[in-house]
Write a structure and sequence with these properties.
Growth Hormone, Chain: A, mainly alpha
Amino acid sequence: MAGRTKKHLEHVDKKKLEMLSFISFLFGFSQAILAYVIADYFKEAFGSTNVSVFYFISYAIALIGILNMHKIIKKLGKATAMFLFLFLQVCSVTFLVFSSPSIIGVILLMSYIIASYLAWVMLDVIVEDYSEDKKSGRIRGMHLTILNAGFVIGPFISTQVLEKFGFNGLFFVAMIISMFMFVVAILGLRNDNQRFGQNLTIRDLMKKIFVNKDVMKIYAVSLALEFFFALMVVYTSLYLLELGMSWSKIGIIFTIMLVPFVILGYPVGLLADKKLGEKEMIIFGLVIMAISSASIFFITSTSIWVWSLILFATRIGATIIETLRDSYFYKKIDGRDVDIISFFRTTPSIAYILATTISAVILIFFPLKSVFLLVALAAFLAIFAAVRLVDNKSEKEM
């Protein structure tokens, strides 16, 4: 890799990866409990479906944290930094149990978003410490599969709890899961607190990043994927509610929608490692994601099965891209590159900032369903970056 010294000897620690996978499952579950209903909470507190400002502020603050993550790790160590963010997540959701949709509730929920995002980045950094390049597709595919398994069951449970017990009941469930995850993380990682040794400014980091053209291209692909997630998470539930669908129906749709993340992640990563490499499948995933997202604009049906099918198709594309953007990226770096990993994980925050800013303007003039055309446009534009990637060689090609 240009601009960097030879990699250190990588190794796979199966026991650590298994423990990290369990934390990932809990993390996915805790996030899914709230992810698709947060927008409705903001809507109740704010009185408008145009809730972009809350996501904008949350992810702008998170972006500052990510860009300075290497400094945090240098002072605290990787594991301690993760413990800190998980603790802040627990505190935020605990206070939310006793709050109603209000200014205070909004601030607490924004704090939860920020802390969860930073904890996820730290989990990602730690996973790389126990991985190796030649198995990157399989390791990342399995890691994401387990994380997303937690995500699949989350929406169904959250919508059922929301209808029966309201937001306070939902936050109580999220609090219990977050506390359990915090305890598991401390017990499993208490002796693994590696620190980042380099002294880098943000300017130094930018110079280091821009030297590697392939990292910048896969960053563009990742940005399009996170742009997709941002708008889908914020506006899909609001749009389905606008069509007159109940939370119980939406929960069923979202559960079916997320199945591809569980069944495709590992096979896709394995196929990339052994036979194809990542490039061609990333392009294929972008095409699927773009076409299926654009089709949402034209659907007015309230059928559970129609919506399950079309949203299922969008997630097939997203699963392929999510697994292979990680596989591609982690074959270009290793566990020492905390600064580069942190930069790469700025894509969700930047995507949310861009998505919420652009969508806020669009929704002033156009109906809510217009955001799905915006998603499709981002996916199509990302294809230009994907076709210029220098593909990693598979085991078959090597």
